């Protein structure tokens, strides 16, 4: 199953802080 | 690299994954690229829950090497958060699962540091210095650990 990357980075960071979950931020040029 | 099931499982279990795509959203790429000083792709940043960067992977890696680097980075977050036992466990897992990866020597080094930070007992540093005499001798991490042996 592929990773579901989210694109609303600020929202991911906000939720991560609430959930105390590390974040993987991928800067990509790969075909989508 | 991302479709590899081992990588996807590890990422899903350990991180909230987010992506900035240079072509799909160049404005976001510029904004976050400047914020995190990430002008190149692929670049993967491992951030703690407060958005602070702890580890960076730049350039393409085959799946196995990528997984080893991701595991090393996750261990590094635990280390920086002074979760010494968890950090040591994660560092040692890199060495055990991927002994031939580029990440292994660095993981071995920090696996020796974590228990020292927890206890102040230098025995783990000495043991790590000795371990580097038997493996990874040609790496910078062996040089750094040589003072412990």
What layout of secondary structure does this protein have?
The complex is a heterodimer of chains A (32) and B (149).
Chain A: H1 9-19, E1 23-28
Chain B: H1 5-14, E1 16-21, H2 26-35, E2 43-47, E3 53-58, H3 63-80, H4 84-97, H5 103-119, H6 123-131, H7 140-145
Antiparallel strand pairs in B: 2-3
Helix pairs in contact in B: 1-3, 3-4, 3-5, 4-5, 5-6
Structural summary, described in words:
The complex is a heterodimer of chains A (32) and B (149). Chain A is α+β, with helices and mostly antiparallel strands and 32 residues long. Chain A has one helix spanning 9-19; one strand at residues 23-28. The longest helix of chain A has 11 residues, at 9-19. Chain B contains seven helices and three strands; from the N terminus they run αβαββααααα. Chain B has helices at residues 5-14, 26-35, 63-80, 84-97, 103-119, 123-131, 140-145, and strands at residues 16-21, 43-47, 53-58. The radius of gyration of chain B is 17 Å and the shape is elongated. The A-B interface holds A 1-9, 12-13, 15-17, 19-30, 32 and B 2-3, 5, 8, 11-12, 14-25, 28-29, 32-33, 36, 38, 40-51, 70, 74, 77.
Features:
heterodimer, A: 32 residues, alpha+beta, 1 helix, 19% strand, elongated, B: 149 residues, mainly alpha, two-stranded antiparallel sheet, 11% strand
The largest β sheet of chain A comes out as: none
| Average pLDDT score of chain B | 97
In terms of DSSP E residues, the strand content of chain A is 15-25%
Structural category of chain A is alpha+beta
Write down how many β-strands of chain B occur, each being a DSSP E stretch of 2 or more residues: 3
Largest interface: A-B, 27 and 39 residues
Order of helices and strands of chain B: HEHEEHHHHH
Number of strands of chain A: 1
The major β-sheet of chain B equals:
2 strands, antiparallel
Task: Show unreliable segments of chain A.
Answer: none
């Amino acid at each position: 199953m592929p990773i579901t990357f989210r694109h609303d980075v600020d929202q991911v960071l906000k939720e991560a802080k609430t959930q105390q979950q590390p974040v993987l931020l991928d800067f990509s040029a790969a075909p989508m | 690299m991302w479709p590899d099931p081992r990588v996807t499982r590890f990422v899903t279990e350990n991180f909230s994954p987010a992506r900035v795509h240079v072509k799909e959203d160049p404005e976001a790429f510029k904004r976050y690229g400047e914020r995190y000083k990430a002008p190149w792709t692929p670049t993967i940043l491992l951030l703690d829950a407060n958005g602070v960067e702890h580890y960076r992977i730049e350039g393409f890696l085959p799946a196995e090497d990528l997984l080893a680097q991701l595991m090393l980075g996750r261990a590094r977050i635990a280390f920086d958060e002074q979760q010494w036992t968890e950090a040591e466990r994660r560092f040692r897992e890199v060495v055990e699962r991927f002994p031939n990866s580029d990440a292994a020597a660095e993981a071995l080094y920090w696996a020796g540091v974590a228990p020292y930070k927890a206890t102040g007992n230098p025995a783990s540093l000495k043991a790590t210095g000795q371990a580097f005499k038997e493996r990874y001798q040609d790496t910078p991490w062996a040089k750094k650990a040589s003072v412990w042996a």
